[in-house]
Each structure stands twice: as C-alpha cells, then as structure tokens.
Design brief:
Layout (H helix, E strand, L loop, with lengths): L2 H23 L17 E7 L3 H11 L6 E8 L6 H11 L3 E5 L9 H12 L6 E5 L3 E3 L3 H12 L3 E5 L1 E2 L4 H18 L4 E3 L11 E5 H7 L1 H4 L6 H11 L4 E5 L4 E3 L5 H12 L8 H15 L1 H11 L3 H21 L17 H13 L2 E4 L2 E6 L2 E4 H4 L1
Parallel strand pairs: 1-2, 1-4, 2-3, 6-10, 7-11
Antiparallel strand pairs: 4-9, 5-11, 6-9, 8-10, 12-13, 13-14
Helix pairs in contact: 1-13, 2-3, 6-10, 6-11, 10-14, 11-14, 12-13
C-alpha cells in the first residue's frame, strides 16, 4: 500500500468516527406533533416568489385553509412577469389574509429570496409575533402554523425549521435527490434537536418559523442578504447570538416538490447545499471532505479493494462504511413517502454528487433564477454590478 493510500485510509477512518458519533448522538430526536386550534399565536406567512405561476396555485389553495393562527399571508413578489401576480390576486379575493407585496427591483447587493424575506417581515403588521417563511412549492397542512408554534413552546426555542416530506418527479430524480439530501445527514446528523453552534445548526427555508422580534434583534435577515443559502445563513446568524435554532421532522404536516426533474435538482440544489456563506470556515470545509471520504468513496473503494485483493482491514473499513450508508438510506426513507425503486440505488451517485458540492463551494460565479452572481468578501452580489 502506498503512503498516499495509507494517508487517505487514515483520514477516512478518522472522519468516519466523527460521522458515526454524530449520527449516534442525533438519533431519536423530537418531532413536531399536529396541534389543532390557534393556541393564542399570531403568525404571518411570508412567501417570496418570482415567476411561480405554475407552482404557487396549490400552495395558496393550502394556505387559505390555514387556521386562524395565521393572520396574514404575504406573497412577496420580486418582479414576476409570468402572471404570478394575477394568480395571487385571484386567491386574495377568496381570503382577505392574502396580500401581494411588491419587492422589486431587487438591489444589486442582495439575492432575490433573501431580499423578499426581509421585505415580507417589514410588511407584516406590527402585532404579529411569529413569521413563517414558506416556499411556493410547499403544500402545508391546515394545522401547520399552530403545530409549529406549539412545538416551539415545548422545545423552548424561538426559531425552528422543518425537514419536509419530499415528492420526487420520477425514477431519475430518485437517483440524485436522496444522494444530495444524504450530504446533510452526514454533515449534521438527524433532525430532532436545537443547536446554538453556527457550524452545527441545520435549517430548511422551505418551512422556517421564527419570532419576529428575534429576526430583527439578531440582524439575521441582513446577514443573509448576500447569501445563496439564505435559510442556513439566517439560522447561523441567530445561533451566533447564542439563541438555539431547532430542526425537526413534522409527521407529514408539510411536503414539497422541489424540482421538476433530476436535471433540475442536479443543476440547482448544490448551489445552496455547499453552504458557502459568511460563516463558512474550516469546520464547514471539513464537512465537505466528510461527504467525499465517508459518504461517497466507500462504495467504489470497496469494489476496488475486493477486486485487487486488498488487506482485510481495508475491505472491512470500506464494507462498514457502505453498511453505514445503507443505514442512512433506510433512515431517510420516511422523507420520501412515494419512493421509486431507484431510491435504493441512489448511493451510486454519491461520488459525482460529492464532486459537484466541492465544485460549488469553490465557484466564484453562480447563476440563479436567470441572474448571475459573483462571490465577493461581502458575499454574493450581482456580477454586472461587481465588474
């Protein structure tokens, strides 16, 4: 065995121990239980949109069924040109809580979604206590808002987000999406706890609840203004102030169909999964190395080790990590209520997924929603303004 191969195996074993400890420590966490009624809470839903005519209809249909805990439904539009605004107007005629908020034009030194979240919080009525950020591709149970607020009270947190149930477009996406999702499990462990460590906190902007006064006091929205992973940056900014941020599963209270195809998931999700924001440091970089060595490498390494007759210790290590990967896959299955058979084959895409995330973390230029961004010391800004 060469010195390089020995060094890689040693690093792999050391990082594998970190991952196993993390998975063991986070197993069996809390879950958000369905709660009925308004429970005295006042919630404003903030829904940032841009050209979402084809997706926002079912989302709004679900939101008008929300309980009386939801006082306002603010659809914050960043300059749609596809008829989104007219569709929102028709829904507003059905429910007076729906209000269209114009957030255009988006400043050059702000990403579109982060800007929309900030505008939405400002537009909410002063009496609102809680802000619930949702995405246009989300389908929310009528009792989502009171359930989240009740869980926040039980858990003693003022900010939390939810690991949503995932709806896949078909067999091809089932090969890619679970592999991308598994990178979060390897880096952060299973949902079910609150954390005050910015490097360990988890967040999902598809469904994120926070006290309005907390968002303002921590400056979390301003921190996320130039981020391409605004949900994670908001959570990290809150945790950096010593405030616990929770991340939980929610027993089917909220589901989402993130992408229309495997190609769309492959092209778009790594942009935010790399989590390259103002808090990115050596521990975040080490998490990406863990994905490569502990999640992605073992399956091809095991095949090579068996084929070349490698020492038994090498075969045992790789086989144990492959078994761990199968365990993670089985644990994640509940996030995919309808799973094509290719879900169980998704580990074969781990190596290209790891390479994709590493490349995304190193990229200095990015495109999102038809706009080009360039990374600067202050964060991501529009490239045409940064040149």
């Amino acid at each position: 065995m060469s010195a390089l191969a020995g060094a890689v195996l040693a690093a792999q074993a050391a990082l594998a121990l970190r991952v196993v400890v993390r998975l063991t420590r986070t197993a069996g966490g809390d879950r958000v239980r369905p709660e009925r009624g308004a429970n005295g809470a006042s919630v404003a839903i903030v829904l940032p949109v841009l050209d979402e005519r084809d997706r926002i209809g079912p989302c709004l249909d679900a939101l008008v069924a929300q309980s009386s805990a939801v006082r306002e439904i603010l659809v914050v539009d960043g300059g749609s040109r596809d008829g989104t605004q007219a569709l929102v107007g028709r829904h507003a005629q059905r429910d007076a809580r729906i209000r269209l908020v114009d957030a255009s034009p988006v400043p050059w030194n702000a990403t579109g979604k982060a800007w929309g979240l900030s505008i939405g919080v400002r537009a909410a009525s002063p009496a609102i206590e809680w802000i619930l950020f949702l995405d246009a591709d989300v389908h929310a149970d009528p009792d989502l808002a009171p359930s989240l607020v009740a869980h926040a009270g039980r858990a003693g947190v003022r900010a939390l987000s939810v690991a949503t149930c995932q709806q896949l477009s078909g067999a091809a996406e089932a090969l890619v999406h679970p592999s991308l999702l598994a990178t979060l499990v390897y880096r952060f462990g299973s949902p079910g706890r609150a954390n005050t460590d910015p490097s360990a906190v988890q967040a999902n902007g598809q469904c994120f609840l926070a006290r309005r006064d907390l968002l303002i006091a921590t400056g979390a929205l301003e921190s996320a203004r130039t981020s391409l992973c605004e949900d994670v940056t908001i959570a990290r900014a809150i945790a950096a102030r010593g405030e616990p941020v929770g991340f939980y599963e929610a027993d089917g209270l909220v589901g989402v169909r993130m992408y229309a195809s495997a190609r769309e998931a492959w092209r778009n999700w790594p942009r935010s999964l790399a989590m390259r924001d103002r808090f990115f440091g050596w521990r975040e970089a080490l998490g990406l190395v863990e994905i490569l060595l502990v999640q992605a490498l073992p399956l091809p390494a095991l095949a090579v080790a068996v084929g070349l007759g490698a020492p038994p210790l090498v075969v045992f290590l790789e086989a144990a990590l492959v078994a761990c990967r199968v365990g993670v896959l089985a644990g994640m299955a509940r996030a995919y209520p309808a799973r094509p058979f290719t879900y169980w084959l998704s580990p074969v895409t781990d190596l290209p997924v790891a390479a994709r995330l590493l490349a995304a973390a190193l990229r200095r230029r990015n495109r999102w929603r038809g706009l080009a961004y360039v990374r600067r010391p202050v964060g991501w800004v529009r490239s045409e303004e940064a040149s």
